[in-house]
Amino acid sequence: MKKVKVLDKEFGLYIPQQRIEEAIETVAQRINTDMEGKNPLFLVVLNGAFMFASELFKRLTIECEISFVKLSSYSGTETTSVVRELIGLDHSLDGRNVVIVEDIIDTGHTMKYTIEKLKALEATDVRIATLFFKPKSFQYDYPIDYKAMDISNEFIVGYGLDYNQHGRNFPDIYKITED
């Protein structure tokens, strides 16, 4: 599909599924190399990262575990810069290597909060894997260890990303064409 409508907004095709999955393959190979023998805990941030996590895990060959948290800092198409923890962590992180799996990092507020929380819970090493990164929006200096793709500042949906909880099911990424 070249265009889709999600609720009251129009979106045009931005990144096809094949390109997304090729980028995920590259990230998975880097993680397989970097985390060999470390048995990391992959902490997937819901809801948006579920499709990225699913494709990433199909490609991981290392011993690892997975858990899920639900954090949010968005309202509609804008970030609120206030992080609300919705579902908490249920694993001990003391001495663990943790890889946070996120769908998109733009301002970095949500990830900063998450990193601080994981370090307070005594994780040994905290790394970040994100499907999309918006470097022009990023407001911090912490490292993003595994980036599948850098993108511009457009608002996007598909491949797990949503507009007011809709549009996550598209296999491609679409960018907003009207406000």
Descriptive report:
The chain is of the alpha/beta class and 179 residues long. The protein has a single domain, classed as 3-Layer(aba) Sandwich (Rossmann fold), CATH 3.40.50. The protein is built from 3 helices and 10 strands; from the N terminus they run ββαβαβββαββββ. A 6-stranded mixed β-sheet has the order 5-4-3-6-7-8, with helices on both faces. The protein has a 4-stranded antiparallel β-sheet with strand order 1-2-10-9. Helix 1 crosses helix 2. The longest helix is centred in the first third of the chain and has 18 residues. It starts with a strand and ends with a strand.
Which key features would you list for this structure?
6-stranded mixed beta sheet; alpha/beta; 3 helices; 22% helix; 179 residues; Rossmann fold
Summarize the structure.
This protein has helices at residues 17-34, 50-59, 109-120, and strands at 3-6, 9-15, 41-46, 65-75, 78-87, 97-105, 125-133, 146-150, 156-157, 173-176. With 179 residues, the chain is α/β, with parallel strands linked by helices. The chain has one domain (3-7, 39-176): Rossmann fold, CATH 3.40.50.2020.
